[in-house]
Amino acid sequence: MSSATFNPHALMEITARPNNIFTKGKGSWLWDQDARPYLDFVQGWAVNCLGHAPSLIADALSQQAQTLITPSPAYFNAPSIQLADLLTQKSCFDRVFFTNSGGEANEGAIKLARKYGEISLDGAYEIITFEGGFHGRTLATMSASGKKAFETMFEPKVPGFPKARLNDLQSVEQLISDNTVAVMLEPIQGEAGVLPATTEFLTELRALTASHGLLLIVDEIQTGIGRTGSLFHYEQTGIEPDIMTLGKGIGGGVPLGALLARESVCCFEHGEQGGTYNGNPLMCAVGLAVVQEVSKPEFLAAVVENGSKLRLALDTLSSKYNLGASRGSGLLLALDIKCKMGTQIVAQAMGNGLLINSPRPDTLRFMPALTISEVEINQMIDILDGVFEELL
Ligand SMILES: *Cc1c(COP(=O)(O)O)cnc(C)c1O
């Protein structure tokens, strides 16, 4: 199959894409139409936690597809009940609403918080979010995001999302008013370039929100499902949020998201939340297989171990070329390259058979499969070394 066989012009133009057409994936590797292999440290944007095309997912999908695909969101189905049970057992939350994407999970979290404000906080509706934050591409989640580029898009925005600064408690305090119902943040800002909220900040934020009777919402769409070495990132910080959203890794590559909340916050009345495919057994069967696998202690221990190896290797490479520090947690890592060469490095790396991402001009982001091997980490470092050698 050559690329000439396909005409991509029927696809709506939304972003600059390389010309390659990817036709096959296995584990940490992707192949394009010319059968060229690529070592993949993007993995669908931190989505494929078990790598490309794992048999675990293929089996769950095919078994469930032959059993029951969608009875209707108005009926119970077994996989959604089992997955909700597992997620609540493994977290501080009591109930789960499944969605088809991360953005939709955040949209649900925003609605749940606003409903809570309506009935418990005299109609308070404002949700304090953060500069640099990313919560999705629906109108409300773009409004909640603190991404500079979003600021002028699709006006007028959904109101009610004042922005504080990450790791600056005072900036949050200053925004609290009678209209405030919640604070929402990513414990590590992923799209902003892997910028972690400190444990101290999260601890103080939890105390602050609790003392004002406000909800704390964590968007763990990128950090959750083992990405940072624990099943959910908040577990490493000692805080217990009121609401959490999941996406990306929970489906291991299939469209699935989740909104989790403590019982005291679950205040939707009938008719206020729903959706045709929400909680469908086909995706929930995959989510169940994925979460069962990722939550195994030995699986999470390997993420921590490989995360340290990757980080150490990045630091060594960084010293060699006089670059900046690495940051992040587990297998969500970034390297400060101290110059605005991100785009060129990503393009050159792709030419040399490596897929990485540059979330900002001076930063490279690494989000490999959680099943990455030491050999593959070393292969990645070798290719990157070559790219740095050529470009820096
Ligand atoms: C990717 C992402 C989202 C949006 O998820 P979609 O599935 O693309 O809608 C929201 N929040 C964070 C932190 C993300 O990384």
Question: Could you characterize what this model shows?
Answer:
The chain is α/β, with parallel strands linked by helices. The protein has helices at 43-46, 55-65, 78-89, 102-120, 139-144, 169-173, 199-211, 281-294, 297-320, 342-351, 374-391, and strands at residues 22-26, 29-32, 37-40, 95-99, 126-130, 163-164, 180-185, 188-189, 195-196, 215-219, 243-246, 257-261, 326-329, 332-336, 354-355, 357-360, 363-366. A seven-stranded mixed beta sheet has the order 4-12-11-10-7-5-6, with helices on both faces. Strands 1-2-3-15 form a four-stranded mixed beta sheet. Helix 10 (342-351) packs across helix 11 (374-391). The protein is globular. The structure holds pyridoxal-5'-phosphate (PLP). Residues 101-103, 106, 134-136, 186, 190-191, 219, 221-222, 247-248 line the site of pyridoxal-5'-phosphate (PLP).
